[in-house]
Amino acid sequence: MSDGPKKRGDGLRQRDDEYGEVREPETFRIERLLPGPIERVWSYLTEPEKRRSWFGTGRMELRAGGRVELKFRFSELSAETTPPTKVDECEVTGRITRCDPPHLLSYTWGSEPDVSEVTFELTPQGGEVLLVITHRRIGDRGTMISVASGWHTHLGILTDLLNGGKPRPFWTTKTRMEEEYGERL
User: Fold this and answer.
1) Rounded to two decimals, what is the model's pTM?
2) How do 21-24 and 89-100 pair as beta strands?
3) CA angle at residue 66 from 115 to 109, to 5 degrees?
4) Would you state the pLDDT for residue 86?
């Protein structure tokens, strides 16, 4: 674990409470306190164009059993457009396992035999919203580091957008987070 704030690629400090953690085997959990109201945050999880601005676009049938199609193009998430020897585009499919708008969304991620599950929990806290993301059934350490650094980076961009700021650089942040989670996990 780190003793203090880490310097972000955009010159800002990374607080220790922004890091996610492994609380049980094969499970990563990360939290963010975001500006509300809850319906606004929910829309960034579920509406394709808003979700595209921080994560990935694609169709999502908001009901248990509904299909999820996520299409990622990472170079479109910030002004930093050149990926460093990484895949810039990918698609993930899944099925919604639980949906209770605007408080809970859970869906499978990927396909057999490597299917995992992502759960988003939203809780109002005054004018803010606590977003908790739990990603379960992550098979190995390398995947865990990739998942942890990915969620950390995407949530940083979502936080920037919801606060009216410019999104932090995706690739620089993701690469740095891979190194830091490699040390932390």
Assistant:
1) 0.89
2) unpaired
3) 20
4) 78
How deeply is 169 buried, as exposed, middle or buried, from its count of CB atoms within 10 A (0-12, 13-18, 19+)? buried
Helices 141-162 + 170-184 axis angle, to 10: 130
Q: Which helix (H) or strand (E) holds 109?
A: strand 104-109
Contacts of 137 (CB under 8 A, 6+ apart): 26, 27, 115, 116, 117
Closest CA to 15 of 2, 27, 28: 2
- What architecture is domain 6-184? 2-Layer Sandwich (3.30)
Query: Dihedral of the CA atoms 152, 155, 157, 162 (nearest 10)?
Result: -160
Structure tokens at 34: 């975001």
Report, as an integer, the average pLDDT of 85-106: 94
Q: State phi, psi for 41 to the nearest 5 degrees.
A: -65, -45
In the chain, what are the domain boundaries? Answer: 6-184
Span 2-49, pLDDT tens digits: 344 444 444 444 566 789 999 889 999 999 999 999 999 999 999 999
Token digits of residue 164: 């009216």
